[in-house]
């Protein structure tokens, strides 16, 4: 019997086998409208997914949409936790304390006698919106913090002037102002007196405990030491809506402890209807990616594309508002094309990129207003000038598209403010032109999202196939197929360990130049590196005073694996686990892969042997899939694997000093690379990625 409808938690479990995209959208481009339009109305009403400028919550969220989910008013949520970044909080404490130190004439004497409210405010709710501790303000003892800071400042005060004088002699005064030297010395001394920071460390640990308790209280659990929290069924009643509002409240504390959220729900019925395939609509779209939106559009888009490549996604959807200044749009597009071209050269990956120009209605409105015949705009003006405005949009987008010279980039335009035809003069002006009319109502957005989903699905399919294969597994909760790598694989890839530990160039770059460096590394540079490392990105510094570094651990691992001999080892090691499908389904799967047609009168053992060859050929010939898998495994092996993440986080948080933390993390990398367990982890991660990729070809029924 076919299982046509199922629960949202089942869609959540199958999230790795559905077509996916990552949404890159600067503030004001219509990201919230886009997300809220494609999820069902119940879900739309229950939550606001937008994160505007200067808002503190940067919760990366992925919506897993499946037309087979039974109800609009039910969803499932998977929350992935992260270690609380106490260093970030400590940095704000340092900054606010230094401000006091300046006000007090660079002295610690009586510094805390008349504390102003903005001292604690700057720590609880920093102006740069990196986090917000106001939620636990009443649970924090201000006197305890002052007590913790006093011994640190006392030691700094003893040597501060002397150290500033020493540093002035070592630095060209033209390169550094005195106030900057003083700040640098203060930060260096802060990191030096570890013994005096014992009380501060205890205070920060208390903050960490309170944040963890707040999350446990929100989700209604007393104990949870796991990295993931699963809410199998959240009913979108008054209580469920309140939960989502608290979770996504920009002033909430949860961005400090939540790394990622996945929500499985039913899509909007219009999106389901726009789907052209004869199989269920399944699509995953990732919203906010944890990038601070208080940036220029160009920087945000460039960083967003880089971050999008870190996720295991099939495509990237970029939103650009048509009512932005023309020079901003052109600069943004140039940044997109340059970044994509750079990533293609560096990673050999071509992810399909869809550029959606939004707010066409506002653009048209502005153009009509400029050309109106009288003071007030009339319907006649819309009839006269709307088509001209649309032709201008089409022409400009065509010019921008031609300049890209990237075949995997697709462009489209839509409105993002929807009105009924009877009260919308713009739609009335194009009535009769179904293509343009659809772009000015929700149908245009639904059809484009459905196209992206279909394109992603087609790109994953074997040559000659136009839809995924419907398969009935023996156990519906398991993957249709599991791919394994033979027992010799980890032995055959020992060269990876050798390249990472014995190759002198690699060893010097990530270990020796860091661990044995006699100069200090700047805290902000280390913090940025750590943040980027967690997303599989590298970081390069250009400091004048502090030690410089250029580290990309994911890139290093990927480079080591990026050779033809490794690819041959990987492909030849693939083995099929067909324990979850019966013989008839095995024959169907083999026939699906076989371009020559049906397999008649073959013994099942012969069919299985042939299917294994076909699967190996699929990965051998699909370069796009191969490089994507390589990229994801390199990310898992450099951070995202649970064992590696735990080891690196323990190293990073071992000391409060950023300088020590960087050295400890790089030491830990060498230790991890030297362990036999590392190659086993690499093997397991390849098996997961191969299995996830192959199951994108099937729809379990």
Beta-strand content bin: 5-15%
Shape descriptor reads globular
Helicity, as a percent range: 40-55%
Backbone CA Rg = 28 Å
Which structural class fits the helix and strand makeup? Answer: alpha/beta
The end-to-end span amounts to 8 Å
Unreliable spans? 49-57
How is the quaternary structure best described?
Answer: single chain
Strand order of the largest sheet: 4-3-5-2-6-1-7-8-9
- The averaged pLDDT comes out at 87
Biggest sheet details: 9 strands, mixed
- Domain count: 3
Number of helices: 29
- Tally of DSSP β-strands: 15
Give an overview of the whole structure.
The structure is a single chain. α24 packs parallel to α25 and α26 (623-640) packs across α27 (642-652). This protein has 3 domains: 8-82 and 227-354 and 381-411, no CATH class; 87-207, no CATH class; 470-700, no CATH class. The N and C termini lie close together (8 Å). It has 29 helices and 15 strands. Residues 49-57 have low confidence and may be disordered. Helices cover 54% and strands 11% of the residues. It has 701 residues and is of the alpha/beta class. The strands form 4 sheets. It has a 9-stranded mixed sheet, with helices on both faces. A two-stranded parallel sheet has the order 10-15.
